[in-house]
Amino acid sequence: MTTLLLTGCAGGQSKIDACKSIAQSVSTASSEVSSSMSNFQSDPDGAAKSMKNMAASFTTAAGKVTQSDIKPLADKAAAAMNDFSGDFAKLAADPKNPDTAAVEKSSQKMSDTFTALQKACTL
Questions:
Q1: SS3 for 27-45, per residue?
Q2: d(Cα 2, Cα 4) in Å, to the nearest integer?
Q3: Is the dihedral of CA 61, 64, 67, 69 positive or negative?
Q4: Half-sphere exposure of 43 (CA within 13 A, CB side)
Q5: How far apart are CA 58 and CA 19, in angstroms?
Q6: For residue 102, with 0-12 CB atoms within 10 Å meaning exposed, 13-18 middle and 19 or more buried, which class applies?
Q7: Residue 12 C-alpha from the chain's centroid
């Protein structure tokens, strides 16, 4: 019985551990977004595929976060990244008729969610 109670009290993922678990994904995501944007003109489909893969990787990383302060922020960042990836794919599919407003809006949302995540991880 005592063992069960102590096991129940054992802490879950710490804030530091949660932030560390997604730090590499955030760094990779930032690089991938920059790279995809740079490659868009020469290979829009490849850039969109890269963006989709990056969003999926970050979503997987966010799914591993269990810490109660960081989890909702990681999930929001993943959702925003997936939205941006979708808008980016639409842009790649029809670059002659771009919906730049949608891309700008989802890009800003993604930036805002990552800023909130970064802020929570640096406090």
A1: HHHHHHHHHHHHHCCCCHH
A2: 5
A3: positive
A4: 9
A5: 13
A6: middle
A7: 22
Return the amino acid letter for 61. Answer: A
Statement: residue 86 has pLDDT above 70: yes
- Among 53, 57, 56, 65, smallest CA distance to 18 is for 65
pLDDT digits (tens, 9 = 90+) for 44-85: 888 888 889 889 989 999 999 999 999 999 999 999 999 999
Tell me, what amino acid is at 47?
A
Q: Is the pLDDT of residue 91 over 70?
A: yes
Does 38 score more than 90 pLDDT? no
- For residues 11 and 4, what is the distance between their CA atoms, to the nearest angstrom? 13
Nearest to 111 by CA among 37, 46, 14: 37
State residue 11's pLDDT score.
61
